[in-house]
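Query form — protein CRISPR-associated CSE3 family protein

QUESTION: What is the three-dimensional structure of this chain?
INPUT:
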Amino acid sequence: MFLSKLTINVHSRTFRRDYANVHDMHRTLMSVYPDVPADTPKRQAHGVLWRLDSNRGSYVQYVQSHTRPDWDKLPDGHLNAPAEIRPLQPVLDAITAGRKLAFRFVANPTRCDNKTRQRIPLRQPADQIDWLIRQGQTHGFVIPATAAGPDIAITPTATITGRKSEPSKITIEPVRFDGHLIVTDPAAFTDAFSNGIGRAKAYGCGLISLAPSRTL
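ANSWER: The structure tokens for CRISPR-associated CSE3 family protein are given below.
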């Protein structure tokens, strides 16, 4: 597995287009990976997850994948600096039972409406935290408690929009979680780390960044 760090040129025409339509951003990222058979979902085949971090008008995009990407295929001027790629085996090796790790995770917490079967965004922080704790129960981790409650901080994140095809519109209300977790089931958590958690993985959700405890 690989993690790429892309320093985005916010003035590039392709980034401005992609920022306005997350499905275009997805297609730009997928263009750097080898083609797969037509009946095989390309994102899943290469295990691609990504997150766009903003800081005072600049953007850094983190892209995780099972396959090594070829960032030279990006349009000219898309980046402000050469892409950085590093293997993730050291992180995978750190996933052991009882290990406490710092994490950052942008997710798409939703619930299913019983009547319409539509996905409803969870907008209350308490509901969002409960959602993450439930994810831990099935993905091999727990959130440790502090004196103030679960060791999680929530940061508001801009709504993601786009359009895959007419008339379907993409609208995602993501949430960024920062905090600590403790690995309870290394196999389950390794699978979650490798393949992401939750919905909207093609559109910037699901990537879990890990670091040694209290250093992220």
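ADDITIONAL NOTE: Residues 47 and 65 are 5 Å apart (CA to CA).
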